[in-house]
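Collaborator request log, item 7. Partner lab (contact: R.S.) asked for a structural prediction of Protein p34 to inform their binding assays.
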Amino acid sequence: MKSLLEPLNRRNQVVAAISIGVALAVLGIKYVAYLMTGSVALFSDALESIVNVLTAVAALIAVRISSQPPDRGHPFGHHKAEYFAAVLEGALIIVAAMMIFHEAYQAIVQPRALTDPAAGMLVSGLATAINAGWAWVLISRGRAWSSPALEGDGHHLFADVFTSVGVLAGLTLATLTGWTILDPLLAGAVAFNILRIGYNLAVESMSKLMDQAASPEIEARIAEAIRANGEGALQAHDIRTRTAGPQTFIEFHLVVPGEMTVEAAHDICDRLEDAIEKELANTDVVIHVEPDHKAKRKGAVEL
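Returned to partner:
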């Protein structure tokens, strides 16, 4: 199992490290756009990018920790470290939204004139395009590699993209109409959206930390693998699953005839473990063998 996960862990770490460089580059570009225009919305957008740098660092640390093999103190591995990073990212998205609300309010109280908005919007648009492309890479790779830290970082970047699009729309309207109040108002409206994204990310990650079960589709595949390869046993019941990063932990009770030898029951367990691991990559299967009088009527997979 370790040999299968090592290349995946190395790829996760490389992508997470690249994210830090991308976040720093985008932060610099956005700050230049703010200096060119004096726009509170662009300044808020740059503030949000500071959080991008912090979350990229948190993602790299989490990926490195989760890649460590099981040890005596952590026999099930360190995969949940990524969920802590995803919760942190959700919390930092919320903090970014609060920062934008604050700056928008200050701009409403003390309106600011925009300088050279067209050039500033072009520079900010470049940063937005970079963020959008990299966010897609993070989310697609995070899902493919079962890395909640990378996927969470990608969702965070998409929140930044939404912020930037709203900011550019506000600046365009403000420039065309002369209503500078649109600058902070639209910045505040976009902050509501990224606040929602941060909340959803934090809640989902906390659910995974509390040993959320695998998806119904995965549980159905497990049941089918048991049904197709459990010849000789009577039933399987109390099937339980939980996920931790790329790893899926599965355990269930296997009922066999009372007169069956330990060796024969062990052979069935080996066959089931092999079948489940072929059906689902990165699984850890534990089977508890029981005699026939332990069979259950409800919720069992009959063999």
